[in-house]
Design goal:
Blueprint lengths: L1 H7 L3 H22 L1 E5 L13 E5 L6 E5 L35 E5 L2 H4 L7 E6 L2 E12 L4 E5 L2 E4 L2 E2 L4 H7 L1 E5 L14 E3 L7 E3 L2 E4 L17 E5 L2 E3 L7 E3 L23 E10 L3 E7 L4 E7 L4 E6 L2 E6 L4 H5 L5 E6 L4 E6 L2 E2 L4 E2 L14 E6 L2 E11 L19 E2 L4 E5 L17 E3 L3 E8 L3 E5 L4 E5 L5 E2 L2
Amino acid sequence: MSHFRLARGLTPLRQLLEFVICLVLTVTLFRTWHLENFVVPSGSMAPTLLGIHRDVACRDCGFAFPCGSGAVDGFPAAEARAVCPNCGSTENPLGALPDVAGARLLVSKQAFRVRAPRRWEIAVFRRPDVESKVFVKRIAGLPGESIQIRDGDVFAQGVIQRKSLAEQRAVAMVVHDSACVPDSLAASAERWHGDAARTLWQRDAGGYFHPAESATAADDQPTGPDVDWLTYRHWRRQPAPPGGVTEASVEDDCGYNQTRPVEEPAQIADLMLACRLRAFGRGELWLFATDGRDQFIAKIDPHGRRVRLEANGHEVAASTHAPASARALLSQATQVEFSLFDRQVLLAFDGELVLAPYEIPASVLPRTPTSRPLGVGSRGLGVELTELRVLRDIHYTHPRGLASRWALESPYQLGADEYFLLGDNSPLSDDSRFWPSGPAIPARLLVGKPLVVHLPSQQADLGWGPFNIPQFSAIRYIR
């Protein structure tokens, strides 16, 4: 080794300098051809990707949520408060909270050169009218399609575009988290409650518990048809009297949007029930969901691994040999997801579909908003529920008072290499619906696909002025 060093005439300092130069050149070339950094500038993709914001923890229920940075209309900055999207508490001061920088994205510039972009994935791009700026949105329309937004959903060629379970998870927004219970509200304001006068459902450490009932029938099923329902009741907190609530349907609220005016919220029917569930004893588990027009009940027999889906009282799908995850309910806590996104019923255990997706037929019947859209029922079965949450799909809005309304009132025909892009935070997103130069983004202006959120930071004052501290726990892969 010493002979090699003498022959090269290298000192340790020169070796270090050469290493640093090579590293810088390698990183520069790699970034030029493969990866690029991008900072999210706004809240148009919230809560999936955040612009400058403040992290709020509700003082009443403990629910954590991001709120866009800025002044709140009608309040001095020091007195501004955020409304908790989980419990409705208004006692959450914003003025003293530090700003958190927009998400830093690592973008693959080669992804869309290797393959064509897919619907529902996120893309970084440039607009034809302002090619100097870079934007980030979700792809909703593909080349050659006729795109229209109706009732909050995306249609292509007149057909509603549905999401897979993974895609639903990527866009789902939390409406309620049962683990975050407000201290200031009476027990009567509980979101989940047993329907029967003598219900066996009971609150249990952030979740719910139902004991097993004795089975006497020959097939070990509980006698009688009664189902003990635990029903979700959505409500809004009232300013007076203190602690009062009023039942109401779910709306497209977004906790991020409180520092900017939004139009009247839209009512939401596309909901998901998600929880961890363990069953014991003999009997059936029933899951209920309604969009205000159609009613669906999934009936699960864990012992027999039988699953049936009923729509408006009629069986529409069944499996007499459901995946092993159905029986696993009896031995371990299983992630259960039951959703009505995009006029489609999905039921999954631990990420595995238990039944084939059921496409809800189109209907001309009116939809009646409901404050009780979801339920969990026990027919003799013992049930432990934890991490119980209600989530909603993105509802693409039709804001009034804007001159450009692409694909809202009538379909828009995309060209052979054009894409239609939408923001997840629909009420405040400046996207293909409203661009004055037109809604289409040519393929040549797609910069790439975001891969990860890396090294996000939060501002703190360490005594000598503001300082950005990295939040390593927020690093994550982007779906």
